[in-house]
């Protein structure tokens, strides 16, 4: 039926869009036990922070996977303030628009009238913050094809479920040292000098100069990483943080080899 909802999978916490039959108000249900972020989604959350899509103050510890069939939609709403701002949503399988507006109305099943529309291409990530997250409502009208969206959010510390255990590796990102991006205003005339000033060997330096000045890790985490992983201490005393090239293997490939079955 056109305009019906979509299937959802929640990780990190369970939350209600409206009061449920047990009388729980909208928001995070603190006495509900939910699986944590699986490794693949946790790896995505880490990259969102390391790539500066989300700030270290909003390292995701929960997410919701929305699975749309043809004609499924999300009605106008503002995300609950049990979750911090900013948060973001990633889109897969098919493009769809997202609508924004302070006052929105239903035109027909799965169709809404709004002030603005933004396309969500496959593989895109949309960050919601400020008025776009707190004042304007947003919705996804009936989609023309099957699609999946994954929304990553950080829970308010006072609203986390009872017994919630944060992922150590994600938790460490809150204290990670992320090198600021170089801008045209801050970049010196000599890029090699700038790279050396950042603690990295200049790309234009000789091999002998590079050996004399080893590269410092780009990201350093202040907390211990997940048990079972060993990493050497960095010169600054932090724990280097790195991403494995096998975290996102090709479809059908084994994480260990990164190759597709039946191929060498």
From TrEMBL:
<feature type="region of interest" description="Disordered">
    <location>
        <begin position="186"/>
        <end position="264"/>
    </location>
</feature>
<dbReference type="GO" id="GO:0006402">
    <property type="term" value="P:mRNA catabolic process"/>
</dbReference>
<dbReference type="InterPro" id="IPR037151">
    <property type="entry name" value="AlkB-like_sf"/>
</dbReference>
<protein>
    <recommendedName>
        <fullName>Fe2OG dioxygenase domain-containing protein</fullName>
    </recommendedName>
</protein>
<dbReference type="Pfam" id="PF13532">
    <property type="entry name" value="2OG-FeII_Oxy_2"/>
</dbReference>
<comment type="similarity">
    <text>Belongs to the alkB family.</text>
</comment>
<dbReference type="InterPro" id="IPR005123">
    <property type="entry name" value="Oxoglu/Fe-dep_dioxygenase_dom"/>
</dbReference>
<dbReference type="InterPro" id="IPR044842">
    <property type="entry name" value="ALKBH9B/ALKBH10B-like"/>
</dbReference>
<dbReference type="InterPro" id="IPR027450">
    <property type="entry name" value="AlkB-like"/>
</dbReference>
<feature type="domain" description="Fe2OG dioxygenase">
    <location>
        <begin position="59"/>
        <end position="156"/>
    </location>
</feature>
<feature type="compositionally biased region" description="Low complexity">
    <location>
        <begin position="204"/>
        <end position="227"/>
    </location>
</feature>
<dbReference type="GO" id="GO:0003729">
    <property type="term" value="F:mRNA binding"/>
</dbReference>
<dbReference type="GO" id="GO:0032451">
    <property type="term" value="F:demethylase activity"/>
</dbReference>
